[in-house]
Amino acid sequence: MHEPFGVHMIIKNKKNRLMKRRDFLKKSAGAGLAAGAAFSLGGYDKVWPAEMASAEYDMVAIMGGSPEAMFDLGIQEFGGMGTFIQKGQKVLVKPNIGWDVVPDYAACTNPALVTRVIEHVFRAGAKEVYVFDNSVDHGPSCYRTSGIERAAKAAGAKVVPAHSERYYQEVNIPGALVLKKVKVHEVLLDTDVFVNVPILKDHDTTRMTGCLKNMMGVIWDRRWWHSNNLDQCIADYGLFEKKPVIHILDCYNVMFRNGPRGVSRQDIVQMKSQIIARDWVAADTAATKLLGVELEKIEHIPLAAKMGLGTTNIESLNIKRIQM
Amino acid sequence: MKASFLRQFRILFSTLIFICFFIIFVDLQNIIPEKYIKALLSLQFVPSVLAYLSLKTVLSAGFALVLVLTLLTGRTYCSFLCPLGIGQDIFSRIGGRIRKKFRRFGYKKPFTIFRYSLLGITLLVSVIWGFYMLTLLDPYSIFGRFMTFFAKPVVVIINNFFAVILNRFDMYGLHHIPLTAYHLQVYAIPAAFFLLIGILSLTKGRLYCNTVCPVGTFLGFLSKFSLFRIRFDENKCTRCGRCAVGCKSSCIDFLNYNIDVSRCVDCFNCIEICPDNALSYGIVHSNEKNTETDEGKRKFIAGSLAMLIGLPASLKSQDRNVPVPGKGSTVKENKTSPVCPPGAGSIADLQKNCIACSLCITVCPTNVLQPAWLEYGVAGIMQPVMNYHKGFCNYNCNSCTEVCPTNALRPLVLEAKRLTQLGKVNFIKDNCIVKTEKTACGACAEACPTKAVYMVPYEGNLRIPETNTDICVGCGQCEYACPVTPFKAIFVDGNPVHQVAQKPVDKEVDIEIPTEFPF
Predict the structure, then answer these.
(1) Could you tell me if B402 and B273 lie in one domain?
(2) Are residues B226 and B117 in the same domain?
(3) Average pLDDT over chain A, rounded to whole?
(4) Chain B nearest CA to A62, separation (Å)
(5) Does some domain include residue B351?
(6) Domain end: B292, B315, B332, which one?
(7) What is the CATH number of the domain that holds B404?
(8) Could you tell me which CATH class the domain A51-323 is placed in?
(9) At CA A13, angle to CA A12 and CA A17, rounded to 5?
(10) Residue B252 phi/psi, 5° resolution?
(11) At CA B131, angle to CA B128 and CA B137, rounded to 5?
């Protein structure tokens, strides 16, 4: 099953763009012979030797390095960002920019990590990268204070405003129990690939915020969620067709109390960790262990698992653990 | 001095000043640093007087410069520095384009009794009760309200138009800004003044400045003693009358070679118009005394005394509860006091020093500052009030305290602002989603910057808000975030006098940093 990365991309292109990677791996097990031919055909210039790695990991957890270095190492285990992004695609990178708080307070995703993710996305051949979040505090101030606006622009991404209802369009979520309709940011609809870059934090309402909860920054009316069974809404939203292809959960500085905003630097513990996963339920489940919260106390994660969004049974997964 | 130079310099200078004023009031992205705004405003006469009265520092005494300037040069302030005056000149020019007749002024008699009486009443009311009349009549405040109420929305619409177009081309430099309206009633006063001043300036030049404006009247009085003024050279004058026709202030009585200095705003149009160079600007040797002066004074004193007796007492502040829409089965928020903005110190202080120029309202990035309707009583109409249904006070923002030209909002460094308690949080459990719907919410606790609102175990995994008013700063994030309608489940009740909030308790998290993955 160790497929050269280039082959995968070419076959995926030809056959079915929406084919799930897991299915693809099964189907292409016999296509190994085509590999040589595919390479000789060339055309795909983003094949890095380092990224011809084993792609069967469900989750990669890294510990002990800087956010950027951990991501560099971790994403290799998936075969690089090129596994998820095709050349010329438009990519949305969605960090958490919820609060008008400096990076030290770890209320928003680490800006250095955002920069590095965007760089990888561009290296994988993305045509354009967009960054936005519907902040809770005053939007432009959050973009500025969090350092993410500058970090994203430095990496060449477009930072899109998200604090006016005009940017949002209503979509249906078939199969949802409560959240049957929701207004999502138009950039989410216009882009081809969605990369989720949340930060792990304590959370006063949901006990924890991670990959699933980060989606509250792509929608407009959070008040409606709050007044209509918040946990179910979070799980429901996961059914929306435009799912993130990869979740990069920043656990470098982790807010252990007073979340999601935090009151002081004392709320932060430097965990120097990162979780990269395809399955957001699994990533969030692993994160509960880092945060030391029982899964049963966090309603939205089991609910999401029940709706078929992923598994909370992380023992069954193939996890690569890296200590730096 | 050369005639054409004077007028052109006036036009250039006043245009620059006007553009600066326009920009600070419609600075949508809050780019202009507060210190520049303060510097620009330091020479505004009434705000500077009020700032000096409360601060008593040399730096706040910009009005003294204006006085000196007026004693030297006459009412140059009205043509060079007053944004409302400059705006009227622009209107007057437009008026001339519409109908030539609007730019043919001619000499008219002054409304001496009326203007000095009005000035007298304004002063007396200010001294005895408070700055209510100044709030209404101060030209800078009027201009500020025009900008905030009428110009800014137009700029926002234009901004949004271009933002939408740029978005189409994948450019996001301009943000789309939601357009928000204030209390409808609050528009009444600025709208009435806009009509009055608009029509007067369009058709009659500077009639408003020479009839109603208290600053104009006061500086006009002073300029009777000014060193430099416009003078006639009787030997050159052919009595063609063009100067009088072109005078926006209608103050040139060319038949008697007389210029009413108290109404002349030093626009220098007459100097340029005069074909015979009979008019010039320079030092006047006062050999002819104006007899009108004494008469004017007498009339003024008599008039103001007469008006004083009939002064309505209704101007006094009346406390009144915030009106709440009266439907729905939930519990009403019981607000005992409105919340006044940071830096005000207290509602009483705000009322004393604020002339409702609304600059703080327009610089507020979250729209939490709104012009009051009756929250502070009749006398407080248009003064800034915190409205937590429209917005919240951003914890990291002190813009409003930085720009206030009258020191009604005193400058607060961020650290101090974060400990200023504008009001106290109140939780109405019976309205709360967690209790009524038995589902998780906690929007209030999430947003609270000090964790004065925090969640405690309720039923099962549910958690419900609890409050600690000691560390509450009254920023209103909880009230704004609360999804319950029509009455919120959490609200901030204003402190009529601001208090100091306690610092949140700060101790290190007691957790061992893992060296291995716990999964």
Answers:
(1) no
(2) yes
(3) 86
(4) 9
(5) yes
(6) B292
(7) 3.30.70.20
(8) alpha beta
(9) 75
(10) -100, 115
(11) 125
Distance from CA of A84 to the nearest CA of B (A): 23
Pick among B451, B468, B506, B516 to test the A interface (most A CBs inside 10 A): B451
Show which of residues 335-394 on chain B sit within 8 Å of chain A, judged by CB atoms: 365-366, 394
Instruction: Report the C-alpha gap between B147 and B362 in whole angstroms.
Output: 9
Does residue B323 sit within a domain? no
Q: Which residues of chain B have pLDDT under 70?
A: 1-3, 285-329
pLDDT of residue A23: 45
Q: Enumerate the residues of chain B whose CB falls inside 8 A of the CB of residue A285.
A: 519
Query: ∠ CA A179-A180-A181 to the nearest 5 degrees?
Result: 95
Instruction: Assign B258 to helix, strand or coil.
Output: strand
ipTM of the complex: 0.83
What DSSP letter does each residue of A262-293 carry, written as one string? -SSGGGEEEEEEEEEES-HHHHHHHHHHHHT-
Residue B266 burial by Cβ neighbours in a 10 Å radius (0-12, 13-18, 19+): buried
Q: What pLDDT sits at residue B221?
A: 94
Residues B85 and B202 in one domain: yes
State the smallest CA–CA distance between residue B488 and chain A in angstroms: 12
Summarize pLDDT for B292-337 with one digit per residue, the tens. 445 555 555 554 444 443 333 333 333 333 333 333 337 888 899 9
Segments of chain A scoring below 70 in pLDDT: 1-55
Rounded-to-integer distance, Cα B369 and Cα B362, Å: 8
Q: Which tokens hold the place of A73?
A: 């190492």
Residue B179 to chain A, least CA–CA distance (Å):
9
Instruction: Tell me the three state secondary structure of residue B185.
Output: helix
Residues B18 and B157 occupy one common structural domain? yes
Cα A61 to Cα A249: distance, rounded to the nearest angstrom: 10
Q: Could you tell me if B229 and B363 lie in one domain?
A: no
Task: Tell me the C-alpha distance between A320 and B92, whole Å.
Answer: 77
Contact yes or no for A256 and B509 at CB 8 A: yes
- Report if residue B167 sits inside a domain: yes
B262 and B363 co-located in one domain: no
pTM: 0.84
Considering its fold, how many domains does chain B have in total? 2
Domain extent for B466: 347-500
Q: What is the 3-state secondary structure (H, E, C) of B129-182?
A: CCCHHHHHHCHHHHHHHHHHHHHHHHHHHHHHHHHHHHHHCCCCCCCCCCCCCC
Nearest CB partner across the interface for A227, out of B160, B175, B483: B483
DSSP label of A219: B
Spacing of C-alpha B173 from chain mean position: 29
Alpha-carbon gap, residue B447 to B454, rounded angstroms:
10
If one counts every other C-beta atom within 10 angstroms of the C-beta of residue A109, the result is 31
CB proximity B106 to A under 8 Å: no
CB B239: neighbour CB atoms within 10 A? 13
Query: Please, are residues B346 and B365 in contact by the beta-carbon 8 Å criterion?
Result: no
Residue that is written with structure tokens 């437009």 in the block: B94
Q: Assess whether B237 and B352 both reside in one domain.
A: no
Question: A227 vs B461: CB contact, 8 Å cut-off?
Answer: no
In a domain, B514, yes or no: no
Span A240-299, pLDDT tens digits: 999 999 999 999 999 999 989 999 999 999 999 999 999 999 999 999 999 999 999 999
Q: Distance (Å, rounded) from C-alpha B77 to C-alpha B13?
A: 12
Q: B376 with B274, same domain?
A: no
d(CA A307, CA A301): 10
Q: Which residue of B has its CA nearest to A208?
A: B446
Query: Would you say A167 and A128 are in contact if contact means Cβ atoms under 8 Å apart?
Result: no
- Contact yes or no for A138 and B463 at CB 8 A: no
Q: Residue B509: list chain A partners with CB under 8 A.
A: 256-257, 266-269
Task: Delimit the domains of chain A by residue range.
Answer: 1-45, 51-323
